[in-house]
């Protein structure tokens, strides 16, 4: 079932790919398509087979690059790639729905009733129906994918076989084609021309990133379940690789056959922009060779799979967004829930459709740019990873693949720069919304879990909880630092009872929003020493631990540095004017416990 959920995105490109190839390459279409297939089988497929091995939880190549770059450098790259991924997946939904509407409008039986003016409303209507399917349930969407994909493949096979029979009956078609090829120059010139044209056909490689994004839905069989959960689900990885390979090989055969048949049988005036075969080359042949009844059945199947191609994109976003933005604190909590996110994606796709007036051609550049950036990021991540694993031969191979995808992307951007502009808008939206979300959530406690590193710490913990100690945060938890702090406190304040000195150890990677804390507690003379590990933000962690301990008083330090600098350092790195931020966070949570007698006293001291 998951094969078809992934494949509807990939297979649906048959609805427009042969027409794009004809328009871009003309008689060179079969050779340019053959080059596309070679890059798919020896480039994209090996890349995502490696990605599946290292990203079996569904994060995809984006997660691999994140792990290769530490801290906010990696997270910023992830946010940019999420912008391109959003471009890819959202445009997949809108472009496919628009092309489905185009097939409906141009059908000879429907054209009278629909007309060009119905294009926009029909496209949005198809997106709405897709949204309702996902609101009904994810499993229903997966089941429907197979019901849509299988008939479409079968009908394409019928059209292609009928086309090959027609070519066999008229061998002069091949003779004329080869004669026209000779007019293009020698084979070296033809190969070079095909390589230059190849980037325009890059849409035929869509679907791989979605394939690894939905990996959690792939069953690993007994191999992953017999002995309970495993660190590496070998069965899921193996089955995902089979899924990707099956989709790639099936599509490769169909692409080569379709480009050959359409080049031989469709005259140039028919596939030009505005011609009857423009954007629907195989549908044109279905009507011409097998009649309008069969052609209409083919149109219905094409409309269905183009419409449902958005399902794989929707599934990819539903798995991708909750894995990143909430973890960075850069999305509201409801993003983790499927139905609200589905509605947001529908509104977004509707806006994009209205902006582009449901035009397939206008959205093609953005689609190709999104696909190629994700392909390039995947190849780069695999090359870097294998290099770190000291697998030099494989690493060198994937550096070559990276160069191929880099050339394809650059060529595509030079010829159609609007794709980068559109992707830039998505990136700007992701960065803006993410930053605002992190800002408004900055006073949350930001702790997911707390545990003790040893049994002795767990035994001592009850002795400091419940108005038993004064809490004193320290930037350095050394003997000399504790001694100096204790002298300063006793110099200015008269306190009774033990002190709990606490030091928070921040993680090297502090862009994650929530912390999994580990704590140690030890007794030093009559005072306690607390160390907290795994924190992502200093002030939030201190406030969290303070709420758990409920101390008699808290001694907070002030650096008296530039407030704007402190605020920015706190927002992004969890550092800054810690004392004031701890106080601000505690005030937020004390709103629920207004009684003054149960709140700890707050003392602000210069550091």
Descriptive report:
This protein has 607 residues and is an alpha/beta fold. The protein is built from 23 helices and 7 strands. Helix 2 crosses helix 12. The model has no long low-confidence stretch (mean pLDDT 82).
What are the SSEs and their pairings?
Elements: H1 2-11, H2 17-25, H3 29-54, H4 61-68, H5 71-106, H6 119-136, H7 138-169, H8 172-182, H9 187-197, H10 208-213, H11 222-225, H12 234-265, H13 268-271, H14 281-324, H15 338-355, H16 360-388, H17 392-415, H18 418-440, E1 447-452, H19 455-460, E2 470-473, H20 479-492, E3 499-506, E4 515-524, E5 527-535, H21 538-549, E6 553-558, H22 563-573, H23 578-590, E7 601-606
Helix pairs in contact: 1-7, 1-12, 1-14, 2-3, 2-12, 3-9, 3-12, 3-16, 4-5, 4-16, 5-6, 5-14, 5-15, 5-16, 5-18, 6-14, 6-15, 7-12, 7-14, 16-17, 16-18, 21-23
Key terms for this structure?
alpha/beta, about 65% helix, 7 strands, about 600 residues
**Run of helices and strands:** HHHHHHHHHHHHHHHHHHEHEHEEEHEHHE
Strand content: 5-15%
| Mean pLDDT over the residues | 82
Helicity, as a percent range: 55-70%
Gap between N and C termini, in Å?
62 Å
Strand order of the largest sheet: 1-4-5-3-2-6-7
Oligomer: single chain
What is the number of beta strands? 7
Shape by Cα distribution: elongated
């Amino acid at each position: 079932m998951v094969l078809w959920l992934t494949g509807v995105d990939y297979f649906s490109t048959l609805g427009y790919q042969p027409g794009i190839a004809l328009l871009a390459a003309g008689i060179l279409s079969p050779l340019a398509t053959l080059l596309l297939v070679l890059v798919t089988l020896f480039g994209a497929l090996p890349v995502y087979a490696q990605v599946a091995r290292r990203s079996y939880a569904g994060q995809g190549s984006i997660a691999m690059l994140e792990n290769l770059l530490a801290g906010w450098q990696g997270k910023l790259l992830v946010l940019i790639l999420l912008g391109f991924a959003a471009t890819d997946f959202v445009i997949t939904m809108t472009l496919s729905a628009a092309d489905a509407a185009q097939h409906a409008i141009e059908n000879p039986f429907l054209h009278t009733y629909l007309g060009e003016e119905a294009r926009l409303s029909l496209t949005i209507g198809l997106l709405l129906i897709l949204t309702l399917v996902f609101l009904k349930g994810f499993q229903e969407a997966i089941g429907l994918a197979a019901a849509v994909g299988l008939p479409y493949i079968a009908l394409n096979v019928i059209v292609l076989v009928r086309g090959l029979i027609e070519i066999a009956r008229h061998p002069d078609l091949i003779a004329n084609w080869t004669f026209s090829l000779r007019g293009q120059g020698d084979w070296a010139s033809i190969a070079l021309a095909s390589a230059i044209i190849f980037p325009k056909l890059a849409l035929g490689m869509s679907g791989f990133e979605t394939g690894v994004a939905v990996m959690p839905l792939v069953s690993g069989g007994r191999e992953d379940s017999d002995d309970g959960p495993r660190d590496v689900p070998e069965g899921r990885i193996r089955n995902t690789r089979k899924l990707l390979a099956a989709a790639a090989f099936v599509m490769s055969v169909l692409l080569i056959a379709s480009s050959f048949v359409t080049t031989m049988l469709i005259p140039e005036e028919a596939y030009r922009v505005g011609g009857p075969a423009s954007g629907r080359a195989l549908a044109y042949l279905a009507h011409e060779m097998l009649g309008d009844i069969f052609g209409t059945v083919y149109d219905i199947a094409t409309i269905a799979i183009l419409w449902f191609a958005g399902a794989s994109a929707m599934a990819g976003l539903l798995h991708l967004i909750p894995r990143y933005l909430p973890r960075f604190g850069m999305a509201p909590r409801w993003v983790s829930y499927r139905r609200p996110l589905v509605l947001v994606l529908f509104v977004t796709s509707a806006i994009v459709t209205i902006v582009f007036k449901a035009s397939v051609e206008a959205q093609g550049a953005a689609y190709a740019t999104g696909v190629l950036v994700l392909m390039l990021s995947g190849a780069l991540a695999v090359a870097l990873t294998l290099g770190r694993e000291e697998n030099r031969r494989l690493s060198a191979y994937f550096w070559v693949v990276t160069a191929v995808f880099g050339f394809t992307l650059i060529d595509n951007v030079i010829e159609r720069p609007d794709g980068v502009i559109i992707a830039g808008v998505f990136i700007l939206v992701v960065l803006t919304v993410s930053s605002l979300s992190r800002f408004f959530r900055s006073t949350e406690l930001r702790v997911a879990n707390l545990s003790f590193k040893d049994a002795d710490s767990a035994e001592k913990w009850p002795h400091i909880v419940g108005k038993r100690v004064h809490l004193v945060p320290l930037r350095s938890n050394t003997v000399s630092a504790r001694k100096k702090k204790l002298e300063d406190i006793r110099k200015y304040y008269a306190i009774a009872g033990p002190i709990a000195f606490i030091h928070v150890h921040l993680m090297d990677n502090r862009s994650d929003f929530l912390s999994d804390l580990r704590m140690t507690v030890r007794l030093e003379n009559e005072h306690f020493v607390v160390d907290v590990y795994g924190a992502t933000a200093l002030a939030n962690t201190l406030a969290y631990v303070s709420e758990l301990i409920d101390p008699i008083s808290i001694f907070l330090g002030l650096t008296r540095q530039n407030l704007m600098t402190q605020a920015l350092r706190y927002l992004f790195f969890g550092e800054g004017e810690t004392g004031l931020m701890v106080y601000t966070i505690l005030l937020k949570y004390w709103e629920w416990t207004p009684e003054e007698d149960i709140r700890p006293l707050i003392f602000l001291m210069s550091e």
